[in-house]
């Protein structure tokens, strides 16, 4: 339904479509120094994984060099990366966690 404003211009309603925000994969990278058990702990603590699922991801990291911990909006992914890296440094491990756009 068209409406006129004060100047006589006809205004047509438009349906605006907003795109969902881009999602980012959070990845844990393999290294030769971080204990496997610590990686499992990180996955359980920061990504709320069961011990079994965390062990599966840890083995993927160990065998393939990296593993996906989850997919999140940008701000959540960045926060999780910062938390994981900070936690690893506090425990003197060189574990790397990064994010990339899906």
How does this structure look, described?
- The chain is an alpha+beta fold and 102 residues long.
- Helices cover 42% and strands 25% of the residues.
- The protein has 3 helices and 5 strands, in the order βββααβαβ.
- The chain has helices at residues 36-47, 51-64, 74-90, and strands spanning 3-4, 10-11, 23-29, 66-73, 96-101.
- Strands 4-3-5 form a 3-stranded antiparallel beta sheet.
- The longest helix is centred in the last third of the chain and has 17 residues, at 74-90.
- The relative contact order is 0.25.
- The mean pLDDT is 92.
Sheet having the most strands: 3 strands, antiparallel
* Global morphology: elongated
- What is the rounded Rg? 22 Å
Alpha carbon gap, first and last residue: 40 Å
> Unreliable runs, pLDDT <50, ≥5 residues?
none
Order of helical and strand elements:
EEEHHEHE
Instruction: Give the averaged pLDDT, no decimals.
Output: 92
Order of neighbouring strands in the sheet with most strands = 4-3-5
Question: What are the main properties of this structure?
Answer:
single chain, 102 residues, alpha+beta, three-stranded antiparallel beta sheet, two-stranded antiparallel sheet
What topology does this entry show?
Layout: E1 3-4, E2 10-11, E3 23-29, H1 36-47, H2 51-64, E4 66-73, H3 74-90, E5 96-101
Antiparallel strand pairs: 1-2, 3-4, 3-5
Helix pairs in contact: 1-2
Could you write a compact summary of the structure shown?
The protein has helices at residues 36-47, 51-64, 74-90, and strands at residues 3-4, 10-11, 23-29, 66-73, 96-101. The protein has 102 residues and is an alpha+beta fold.
């Amino acid at each position: 339904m068209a409406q006129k404003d004060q100047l006589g211009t006809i205004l047509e309603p438009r349906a605006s479509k907003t795109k969902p925000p881009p999602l980012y994969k959070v990845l844990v990278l393999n290294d030769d120094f971080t204990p496997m058990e610590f990686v499992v702990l990180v996955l359980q603590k920061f990504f709320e994984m069961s011990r079994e699922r965390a062990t599966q991801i840890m083995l993927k990291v160990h065998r393939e060099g990296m593993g996906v911990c989850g997919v999140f909006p940008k701000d959540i992914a960045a926060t999780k990366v910062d938390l994981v890296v900070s936690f690893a440094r506090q425990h003197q491990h060189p574990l790397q966690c990064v994010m990339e756009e899906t």
